[in-house]
Give the backbone structure.
Amino acid sequence: MKNHHVCLSKRSLLTVLLIISACLPLQAKVFNVRDYGAVGDGVHDDSPAIAKAIEAAKAQTGEDHVVLLPTGTYRLATTHSATFKREMTDENGVPKELTQGGHLLVASASNLTVRGEAGTKLIMTDVYQQGVTVLDSQNVTIEQMSIDYDPLPFTQGLVEAVDLEKKLVTVKIQDGYADLSREDFHKQLQARRMMIFDPVTRHLDHEVVAKYRLNTLKPLGDRRWQMHISSNTLEDLKPNHHLFAIIARRARGAVMFKNSANCTAMNVTVHSAPSCAFILRDCDAIKILHCDIATPAGSDRLMTTNADGVHCKYNKVGPEIAYCHFQGMDDDSVNIGGSFARVLDQKDSTTLVVHVQIFEPGDRLVFVDGNTGQYMQQVTVKSSYISSFKDDLNAVTLTLNEPVGKLKTQLEIGPPFKAIAPVRLPVEERIVPTLVLNLDRCGKNAYVHHNVFENHRVRGVLMRAPDARIEHNTFRNLNGPAIFAGHEFGFLEGPAVLNLTIANNLFENIRLSNVFICNTAMDRTPAKGLANRNVIIRDNTFMNYGAKAGPGLGVNGVAIDVSNAKGVTVSGNRFEQGHADRDASLPLIHLGPSEDVTVKDNVVEDGLILQAAE
């Protein structure tokens, strides 16, 4: 009898343990890439071994598995690709398969972390490919690693001579940097450009033209090259003084999140990239946290990435970008929003053919006059499918929930039919049809906070997302604007902003309009209408503004510039001493065409002008 009770007790205990274990999640498993053949010596190609570890982790049941890259330098000389199905289908309901690749690829994964350690470095070897790509995934984290390219996607050196009459510039390439005979410097000529740097600060010289497009490249021998330039004036270029960097930009980022949701990049440092450090495309709720963009310690590099810090397009919600430090890029720190699609053809009052983007039933669309920037009718998508235009151009056919009037179409205007930004076209070809933008693919609720953006070309934050916040950031040493909010027709980027808060930021040594709310027309002048709505600019600090500036948007010396807006409050801001070169007759706050603007409770030091100027 006693043994019987003991047996029952053991069975009961076993039953309880089984029940408890069934209720608990399976313990996360660590997949060390060294166990799959990775060496981490900076010489061997570790890409296949890392790919094996990722696939093994994906196959493991349970939650939150980790692919570990121990301290080391991992050279990735093999690229990988995967296919995924777009959310949209063709006319017969068949999804279109797309292919995306990268040196390190995480595809169709869930609850997975790819984690490095202190000193984990990834070296990408193909400037025509993405670095890390997260594709069609959920809850994936890329954490604790640095990313660089070898070869670098740019070169640098000294400006030796300038011929103003013939518009020729001669440069000497610095030892250790790529010669311009490399193939990628002779492709995509629209993306080939030269930036000018101050030899003392080794930062971009914001007092001169910051960017030149290069028409030709002629070798002179001994690492010297001569180039013809017609895009900008050469008068301010100083031979044997200015430094230069030449890039060949292409749409490949150091880290790309594509068609993914609830993913994170954390403690990732990007040293270089063929375009942006982080690309977020067709995603939902992505986070970029505690990330850096910087040259490597001890390096003499002049720059970091060939384009933006973070570039976000066609995202449903977000992103959140927080506690980051970005510097040295050849473009903006952050660009969040959507893109206008050209109306290619109008079949009838409810059926349109437009450039290919994601349009789903229920999405809200707005039509905009392509010439004036005036916002027109807002409608809803009833149905959509992937189609073609002129036989070989990908397009989308939309059915709308209500009729629209006669629209100006690209078919009526004529070529070019491809989706080219008007600023890339000759002036005579910048005739734009009616434009359409998906308001539900602009990154609503984007939150940019507690970051430092400094020492790079152009703007700090370009914001077009509705219900967005830009708070507790530092913007330093930019030509400006530090924040630009509104659409830009030259790049077909938008929309105008709705419910934007800009609060508790520090603006230091921003030359052009520090905060610029404006919609720009095709010639980059203010567009018509008051499409920007409900903007709050409060409790920010502006200091040392108005130093001599190179070309750009905004007014040199104005701190806050508002146009094309209705419902704006400017309050509680502090304007400290401006730069000694600032024109003291300028207002700190300039109001262009706007309505319902309140300016109150701002603090001014040293008798600086504070007024609203029409």
